[in-house]
Every structure is written in C-alpha cells, then in structure tokens.
Prior knowledge:
The structure holds two protein chains of two kinds. By secondary structure, chain A is of the alpha+beta class. In chain A, about 20% of the residues lie in helices and about 40% in strands. In chain A, strands 1, 2, 3, 4, 5, 6 and 7 form a seven-stranded mixed beta sheet that branches. A six-stranded mixed beta sheet of chain A has the order 11-10-9-14-23-20, with helices on one face. In chain A, strands 8-15-16-18-24 form a five-stranded mixed β-barrel. In chain A, strand 12 (about 350) and strand 13 form a beta hairpin. The radius of gyration of chain A is 24 Å and the shape is globular. Chain B is globular. Chain B folds into two domains: about 10-225, PmbA/TldD superfamily (PmbA/TldD fold, 2-Layer Sandwich), CATH 3.30.2290; about 235-440, no CATH class. Chain B has nine helices and 17 strands.
Amino acid sequence: MTDQPLALAKETLLAPAGLDEGALERALDRLMGHAVDGGDLYFQATHFESWLLEDGIVKEGNHSIEQGVGVRAIAGEKTGFAYSDEILLPALLSAASAARAIARQPGRGLALRAWQPVGTPRLYPPLDPLGTLSADDKVELLRRIDAEARRQDARVRQVIASLAGVYEVVLVAATDGTLAADVRPLVRMNVTVIVEDGGRREQGSSGGGGRGGYALLLDDDRHLWHAREAVRQALVNLEAVEAPAGVMPVVLGPGWPGVLLHEAVGHGLEGDFNRKGTSAFAGRVGERVASPLCTVVDDGTLPGRRGSLNIDDEGTPTQRTVLIERGILKGYMQDRLNARLMGVTSTGNGRRESYAHQPMPRMTNTYMLPGEHDPQEIIASVERGLYAVNFGGGQVDITSGKFVFSASEAYLIEKGRVTRPVKGATLIGDGPEVLTKVSMVGNDLQLDLGVGTCGKDGQSVPVGVGQPTLKVDALTVGGTRG
Amino acid sequence: MSARLPSQERLEQIVQHILEVAVDLGATAAEAGVSCDQGLSVTVRMGEVETLEYHRDQGLGVSVYFGHRKGSASTSDLSEAAVRETVQAACDIARYTGEDACAGLAPADRMAREIPDLDLYHPWALTAEEGIDIARRCEDIARAQDPRIHNSEGATLSTHEGLRVYGNTHGFLGGYPSTRHSLSCSVLAEQDGQMQRDYWYTVARAPEDLQSPEDVGRIAAERTVHRLGARRIATCQAPVLFAPEVATGLFRSFVAAIRGGNLYRRSSFLLDKLGEPIFPAFLHIEEQPHLPRGLGSAPFDSEGVATQRRALVEGGVLRGYVLDSYSACRLGMETTGNAGGVHNLRVQPGEEDLPALLRRMGTGLLVTELMGQGVNLVTGDYSRGAAGFWIENGEVAHPVHEITIAGNLARMFLDIEAVGADVDTRGNIHTGSVLVREMTIAGD
Lengths: 482, 444
C-alpha cells in the first residue's frame, strides 16, 4: 500500500486549478445543499496515443488529452449527474448545483464525513506508458510486426498493425469521506492480415496488451508472435468449409472463448439488472444455474490484466467475487448505489467510461476455474460437433437470457478428432441454461491476451475473460449447412 | 440548460488560430475541427425519476501535413495553451510517420463553396421538469397497455444541441449548428415464466417531428407483449423478411463493403463490382445529403468537400463507392464527399406494406431483432442471432427466439425479392422491410 497515487493525482488533477481538499469539501457541501443521500466527484485526466501501420508504412499517429470532472448526487434510487471538461472551482460548483437538482427539496443532505483516504494496492506500476518507449522504437515495433507477418507466407497481401497506449489518472472524493486515487496505464497492440489465394480472400487478427508499459508487448517478442498468429488464423480460414447449422456438442478452447461467460452469465449478474428485476437471473441466488463442474469468478485484482483495477471508479478496492460456485449462483457484481439499495456491500465493480459518464456495475476479469479433464480427452469424447477456439464479440438480452457469440476460428469434430476448419458462425444459447449443459471442464485455464472491450448503455470499458477448455453438450451453431 | 453554446464566430476563430499555429510550426498543410455540444437527458422508471443528466462536451482535433507525412492530435481543452500543445503534439508525430503519397487535404476545387441551410437546428427550450413529465407520460402509457407488463427499464427523453466548425489551409472554413432530440421506452412482460423485453424510440431534429410520448409507449408495449410465448423452430431453409428497423443493418454492411478503406485494403466482398449488378434490377439506392431535417444530412463532409445527391445503386447496378480523399487517391479515383461516412442513404421503397409482404412471403421468418456482429466483410459471410415471428400463409403463427440466420451477403443482396413501403427514417439509412428469398435458420 502506498499513497503515491493520491499525491500524484492531486498534483495532476487539482493543483493546476489551485484546488485542494478544502475545495472538494466546498463542492460536496454544495451537493448536499439539497436533500440528497450522498454523492461523489470523479476527476480524470487521460493521455492517449495510437500509431497505425499499413502498406508497410506508419501512416497515422494520434495523440489526445482529455480531462474533466463528473459530479453525481444520489437520492434514493435517483441520480443527478453533471460534468465539466474544465477542472476549475466555478465549473465544479455549477456542476454540483445541476446534479443536486435531482432532489427537489432544498433541505439538507447528510453531513459530510471526514476524509478517509483509501489506500491503493499495486496491481500495476503507476507509470505513463506513453513514455516507456521512444517514438522511433514504436515505429520500429510496428515495422517488425509487418515484416514478421509478410515473412510467414507469400499469400499475405495486407498487414495492418496498430499500437495504442493510455495513461489515466483518477481521483474520487465522496460525501462519505472516500478519498481515493489511481494511476492506470494501459497498452494494446493489434495486427490484422488479409491473405489471398486464387481469388479467395480471408482475414486473421491477433492482439494483446495489459496494464503496464510497452514492455508488455515486447517481452519474449510477443508482438511478433501476434503477427504469426494472425497469419496462421487467416490461412486456416482460407481452407474453411461451410459451418454446420443446428444443435450439437460444442467444445470451446481456453482463453478468449471465455467471452461465453461474459455474455451468458456475466451481464445477467450485474447488480443493477437484478435490483430492478430485469435480468433472467434476478432472485435466483442460491439456485443451481450451472453444472457442478462450473465455478465462475469476477476478479479485478489480477496483476497487470486489462480488466484489473486497483480501485473501481467509486474508490472501492476491487476484489475477487465468486459469482457461481460449483454450479450454484452465489451473488452479483455491485457498485455502491445498487449495493445500498439491495442491502449488500459494493464488490468494487462500479465502473464508468469517463468523467462524462455515470458509474454502473461492470465486469473486470471474468473467468471459470479449471477442472480435471485433459483437453484432448474432451475433444475425443465428441462424436460430431464443433471445436471453436477464436471468437469475435458477443451480445446478450439480459431479460430473455438469450446470448450470442461469434466464432472466427472453428473446426469440425468428427469421431473424436478435430478435422476440417469451418467458416465463422454465430453461436446462440440461453444464459441461465447453457452452463447446466457443461459436461467437461479442462485443466488448462487461460486468460485472454488483453484485447476485450465491453459495451453497456453506450459506455465502453476494458475487460478480461478466461476459461479452460470446456464442453457444452448442446448449443445452437448458426452455420449455413443445414 | 442555463449556459449557451459559444458562437460560431468564436469556434471559427479557434479553428483559424489552430491552422495559423500549425503553419507557424512548419506544416505545409493543416486541417482542424472544433465542436461543442450540450444537452439534457432524463429517465423515468416505474413512474419515478431515475436519472437527470446534464451533458456538455467540447473538443478540437487537428491534422498536420509535412509534405506527405501526417500527424494528428486532439483535446477537450480549448484554451490557448492547450491549442498550442495539441498542434505541437500533431507536428511531433508527423516527424515519425512515413511518406505516403496520398496523405493530404482533399482537393481544393472540391471544397463546398456555399453552405446550404439544411434546417438542422431546432433547439428545445425544455426544463428538466417538462422532460420528466414527457418521459413519465410515455412510460405510464406503456405500463398500462397490458396486465402482463410487470416491469420497466424506463423511458428516456434526451435533447442535444451542437455546433461544429471545420477549416483547412485551402482557406475553407465552415460550420453549422444542429439539434437532435429523442424519446425511447423499454418495458418487460411476463407470461408462463417467460420474460421478454422490447423497446421503441423516436428521434428527430425538431421536437415537433417526434412521435408522441403516447405512441412511443404504446408501440414499446405492443412489441414486448407480442414476443411472449416465443419458442425455437427447427433448423431449416426459409425466406426471411427483415423488418425496417433491422433491414437498415443489411445496407450498413453494403456501405461498409463499398467504403474506400475496405476496398483499397482488399477487405471487402464487393471488390471490383463497380458497374455490375449486385442487387436485383428493381433496387435503387440514393444518397441524399441535403434532405431538410435529415438525421444524416450534412452540407459538407469532414474534409470540407461539398456533399451532393447521387445514385449508389441504379437498377441493381453498383454506380458509386463511398470514398474520402485518401481512399480515392489510393484507388485512383475522386472523393465522393464521404469522409466521415454516408449522408442519408435512401433505398427506394416498394409499394407493399408489411402485411402485403407477409402474404407474398407466405411461410417464413419475420425478423425484428438481430444480435451479435457475425458479419465478415471480407467474405460476405453472414451469421447472426435473431428473434421475430414465424409466418404461415402470410399470418403470424408464433413468436420465435434463440435462433440464428445465416447466408452470404453477396447472395442475399441478389436474392432480395421486395422492399416494403414501410420506411424507417430514424437513422442515416432509410429503408422499408426487405424480403430475402432464402436463408439458413439454425434452431432445434
């Protein structure tokens, strides 16, 4: 534990405008000028850069700086929210006046509590990743990705490689005395290749990253591995035949296919939907929602992971929350508002895209714990089915429970053996039901490589997923071969 | 809202200043955009106010060119110091990017010479109280429609106004204000242990063009209740009728496939199709950028190029691509004024309404919701989750969910049998229902 992030956040966010803890108290006091239950201030500064290579040339570079403060007032189930991209006392006070209008009575909110600084764990270094590599080296990194991809196969026609880094400093001050800060580095790279063979074209892509400096991408020449991986996927897809259509056993590979958990159960277990009773999982804590082989957690405390946070965007330290234990639904992911209204405590899942957005319950890193089966044994158990190892995105209707996720690399399993690659297809299932059909769980838990972004109510946040190889006895595969 | 947007003159001064700083720092060309937006949004849920949000955003973006090398930067801070810092950042980046013969401003002779008034600015002097009242009326109606409606995600009213100015070192400097108002409602219904949810929304440049709160609430409720009793169907091949609100997605994929960036990267299933039939002969698609009050209307694109009405598809034949100046240069063509995207794509409607199209289809699937992103633009392969209604003899047999529909877009486009008269104009793509001859449906 160290207070270094708090000191840095004050210096970055407050000092330039001449703000101190007294000014924060004034703003929070303004917020409590109406009969509100509480509220918070969220200061944020973000430096972002991206570099893009195509045709072997680094063509685009972008740099952006954003900062601002979001002010929230809460009265019962009501939220008033305003923000300003100027961090200055008058703007802060005027945002507080706007937000508190949610409570119409000009009475008096609760008294401010004395500051209780929240210590910041150290899941990632409090550094600015943009400065961890020179511009020359960033350009060189992209060129090496390009060369590596083209070196793999003469059929590679186009390579698009990108590199992005974010340096984010946040400070949260709340009427309950919360005073917390975090310094959040985030890097990411991506490579997409187009291959062409006799008039047929396909693509493949790979990427990764995490919370830290650009060394995360350079260690063990990871960036070059992604280049080779993108080409491998594209070449596999050149051979792909029509995917089957209908219900069949599906074996999902380890790692990124964990997007299954994110869509099928993750969103449905977010506190807001369950407080309002709009989720297919509402009121089902203690019930069986998965086979006894399944234990699913959301863990914001994994060092260096894309979905990890030292503290969430309400200043609550993140934690490891067991969502499903041996098939039994254990609990939901909560932010402070929904936790209070449901009579529980926040699980450190209160997240927001930026100061200009309201926090809500969001996932961090969501994954299934490993089981006992050898992955080969799992594949061998399938007479005819699908083996899906790479996915694009997914989506869920949390009310009906129906979810989809789209395979981008998949194979047929015939008589216990992986045979031919098939074209990408969407898989569809029912969230509360699908995990009850998990009959085998591998011993090969992997987390994804750090590319996930989750959207909810128009807000995007970085997340992680993971799982071991697992077998779902019956899932609908949306191919074209009926 | 108390504060007002800054004047257009003020934003024009900032843009000019950015360009001056860029030239001062040695840039051979530069372009910049500055925007300010503000708005209010309120949500009422179960009859009570849930959120009251005040929005106010501003930002500037600049691209500089040193010969054929480019650098870009942006910030939300419009102060003098931030402007200088941001332009400097863009210039620093341009020292590291490579020579790219196509990098640069759009041709000077293509800049918009006059900026037609497209009637896009209709601010709504709405207090939070009035907004809450409208949202509440909408949700109340929805909840009162049917006893099976037991829960709600609420009704949201939003009003936004914005001002955008763009300029470049050709001497182009233009801007215009615009507004956007919307009302949406989403409710839940329950029957025999099955829970369903659906929604409806209205969006317009002018408040008086919005559907009434009562209509929005009623339609949201009807759509939700109609989904009750949904079940799966057996895997089969069948005709698919895309309702207007999902048919727009088919044409969004079409636009993406003829966008310059995907063409020069050879990542489109519609490569080299200019002048060839890609739709049936009855199908016409036009871009109408100057539609008064259009949600996609714009007098110039994001490079200052004048937008113009044009045919993209005539008699089923592809007549034009969607290009900005960069991709046009890469393809050896000219920009089509589509930097930033298309502006009001209109698929010429047919004469049949939805019931007539259902009768024409006879037996098949009416899709009202699509899920997931399962569209591969490189190959055209299409596979998405779907919900809707099974149709027998032109009549709704029962609602359907948890199925997928799959095919290949190149084939699906040619297989379009009819476009309905029931045009949805709530977005940038205006189309009626679309009937596709046959697709693979995966279910039980």
